[in-house]
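#struct-pred

JT: dropping the chains for the assembly here, can someone run the whole complex?
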Amino acid sequence: MIRYLVQAVPWRLTIAATGIIVGLMTLVARWPAIMWPLQGTALGVIAGVTAWASDEPAAQVVDTLPRPLWWRITARAAVVPLVLGAWIACLLAARSRLPDHFWFFVLQAAGMVGLALAVTTWRRGRGVAEPGRPFAAIVVPTATAVALIRPFTRQLPVFPVWPSEDWHTSRTVWAAVTTGSFVILAAALIRSLRKA
Amino acid sequence: MPERVQTAALAFTALLPFTVGLLWVAWAMWAQHHWPVPDNGFPFGPAGDGWTFAALLGEGGLSALGGPLLGIVVGRYLPQRGTAPIAAVLLVAVAIVFQGIFEPLRTVRVIMPFTYWGGPFGVEGDDMRMLLLSGSPGWWAAYLCCLCGLAVVAALWHDPASRTPALRLVGGALLVAAVVTCLLAMFTGIDHTVVNPLPSGA
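RK: done, full complex below.
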């Protein structure tokens, strides 16, 4: 698995994305009130790079080999600890400068990772070779736009920052996204196990 | 099909978002007259219709043209996978830094292809007070036109066959014009940050 992992995962892109996450969160930590939209952008990058790493450019060949989809998805998910680790390290390093909702921010990242894995694994199981690139092309600008525009911020605060915002509702939404994503991911993996 | 023809065709497709951007500017100008801004709102004071139109044209119409053209340049010179979303994220981060909130960067912020010309930036004791930022949005819009032209020239330049003396001349002229208009955008127009005299809650 390690040899596949080393050769199949787009490491340069992953490392570049990890650096961008750290850079964005450094700006957020330096000027939280002004730079907060970049927190949403960083979450979009987390989802984007996770999805991108799930792509199988040589799927027409690889899908005929004995290794099942779940095995390859598991190997490619090696990017998850890296980007999540970078995210958590940024949160810990800037803890005193960010709103006191550490576990909520971890939940947001887990939700983004879960969403990316669920969508790409489901589509890979349906025979799509590279579902990660279009997903990344949608999720990064969408997260950025939502973080900048902050639509329906009273009813549905996606990226809350101020103490007056409805953190409880946001936490519920992100918990639902995370749970739903991992349920879909589990269903997609079970489906691939049965096919194998 | 030569690369320069493909590049030119791609550049023409940017006219679609540009048209949408212009429609938005037209709607925004109409909306501003239909629903007048309150006295403590933005724009105010020295910002007349021409000032507002130029700011909206730069922030809306020309951004919608320049964004796709910049995308073509990035695609031509950095065709590696992943460059486009990374470039978009970096551009957003830099645009936020240069949006005018940071006082020391207010004069030089017009170097960016997107920036603000005012808004609820706040003052001490009233963090939603409307401000009008310095500079000339008219010259900034002209600078953005030069940047759009430079983007087309840069994208065409990637194809060695298109590196003709005429393209070099056009590129050089646009570069000089971009520097001049950028300096004019910085140092003409409103010469300091203007604070709306009425508090935000009035």
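JT: nice. The radius of gyration of chain A is 17 Å. Chain A has a mean pLDDT of 89.
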